[in-house]
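Ticket #4471: structure export looks truncated?
Reporter: QA, pipeline team
Priority: medium

Steps to reproduce: submit the single chain below to the structure queue and open the exported record.
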Amino acid sequence: MNLQPIDAVVIVFYFAAVLGLGWRFSRGQGTTEHYFLGARNFPGWAVGLSFIGSTISSVTFIAYPADSFKTAWVRLLPNLAFPFVVTLAGLVFIPFFRSGRIRSAYHYLSLRFGPSVAVYAAVVYLFAQLVRTATITYLLSVLLASLSGLSTPLCIVGAAGITALYTVKGGFEAVVWTDVMQTIVLLSGAFACIAVIAQALPGGLGQVLAEALASGKISFQDLNSGTGRLEPVAAGVSLREKTALMLVLVGVAQYIAGQLDQDTVQRWCSAKSAREARKSMIVLGLGALPIWTTFMFLGTCLWVYFQHFPSEVAAAVLGGTRKAEDILPHFIVTVLPPGLAGLVVSAALAAAMGSLSGSINSSGMVWVNDIYRLYLARDRDDAHYLRAGRRASLALAVAMAGGAWLLHRSSAATIMEMSIILLALVGGGISGAFLFGILTRAGDARSVLVGIGATVTFTLYSTLAQAGVVPRIFSSYYTSILGNVVMFATCAFAATVLPVKPRDLADLTVWTRRRGDDEL
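Actual output as written to the record:
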């Protein structure tokens, strides 16, 4: 081990606390309702911190500092859309999913458009969660491998196994309350790293700011791979290159999609009331963007630090011969004092496990409620579905370990960039279907199925373009935007040419709302 014994003690204490919470909440998990939604009695502040814990993953803890260390803050631009999306969720989305008629995100699609659309959306969600959890698991394994000297594949197995243990055992209550604890640990680790750097430099944080600003490191510039220099990002509209406006729109598309998946809806439904659910979004909205900015700033601090205290690893990362994600583990191992290194490692574990646990539990719920219960095993008792949910959660943990191994075998400028592209490719335009259903009275299952066909065709083209098989006419960054535009536009067109029979749309569109959003 590269860590000191005191660091190992801190990490073991953290693991014991997490597993203890999982064991504590495993009692009373006798129904699927309790296992997947707790007691539906969570306060808004706890749900909000849980949102932060699941949103601020190891993509944030490791990949954000890595990205700003090597480049600048350009990939913070999509996050600027987050306050707008959170406000939209509080005003428009929460009333739908707290109305009492809707059990899950994909149950809404079933009521609005029929079971075929709901099943497609559920399958896309499960695949997207696999990509996301595989990315997070890989990033965590990079840190663990650097610290322990063990192989990355072995660390992948360990990271997935520990998270699966307390999540499968403790259910959603364990997810929420461990997220609360992990969010606090996560922030403590980031501030500890910044404090150590500030103390090591004669001018402290003032020196960091001065040197970073002079070098363009605190800016929305991007690295030119040809020249190796930071260059300003254009501000206008373009589908062929990264621009500031388009990256913000990428954030809008991706975060709206995040508000319309089961991981989010499950948390809304677990709150005591719609009012508490909206409070959770206030906590998330006020907390997420400053935290993302803090981790970008951490990467900038690392860059300034290694300008004054050079190392071979830092030079290799900047030179492109090592992955950028190696820089924070290197700093933890070689710079942080004993004890504090253990805290930061625990923070990295918290970042990953908070996201993984929520995805594992919500994926199990989607599998059981939206696929297995309806089409594979009808009319079984609740104990049967509870067992099926635990097995599905365990299966996702195994699959995410396999996906993390594939990422380990890949090569990319930064894993953060790869993650953005992969999530765009597997998004499937589902948020476009949700928005079409919520914002219009038009269409039925047929129009949405036509939209799905067009979106699948578009996604296939995007995948082939990403692989270089066919010419690319737009940047892969914009796949999520264009996919949802294709979905919404195609659904709207199909709805104008396909006659729709009268049906009950009560509480299913913004035009047919009848319930107050303070219910439940």
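Status: closed, not a bug. The export was complete when the record was re-opened. Leaving a note from the reviewer for reference: The chain is about 70% helix and 0% strand.
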